[in-house]
Description:
32% strand; 5-stranded antiparallel beta sheet; alpha+beta; 5 helices; 3-stranded antiparallel beta sheet; 168 residues
Amino acid sequence: MTPTLYTKRLVLEPYVPEDEESFVALFQDERVSRWMGEGPSPEEEDRALFGRVFTKVYARDLFDVWAVRRDGVHVGHAEIKPTDAVGGHEIIYALAPAAWGSGLGTELAEAIVAYGFETLGLAEVFATVAAENLVSLAVLEKIGFRHVRDIEEDDGGTTRVLIRTSAL
């Protein structure tokens, strides 16, 4: 079961059904979704994804997924999950544009990584980031991730694979 995590300014807690509108709004914001998965999706797909958080992920305890809140307001999304593309556990995080530029991305990413090492007992944690997403790459470098390889995507884009080991 996904636990609640606390940082200095954030609370990461399991989603509740009442989070659907803020979840969909986050995923529908193209400034955010352009960096997530395959990019922007139709609203009905994001609503279906939100439903699967409950019917698949939480119901089967597949991996950890959090609503990210600051002062009680939903400001982001976070996950840590096993991914075949990297052969290990990958962190995924997104913040609403209103939360950008204040160091919350660093705080959020660090919290997920710490959970991976301390609670899940992982020796390494991965992240995959579009090569053009310089802000996210800088955040991950700042907290000790290093580039290990690139994945050339079918659409011609490049995804960077980064790793951080628990030896930091």
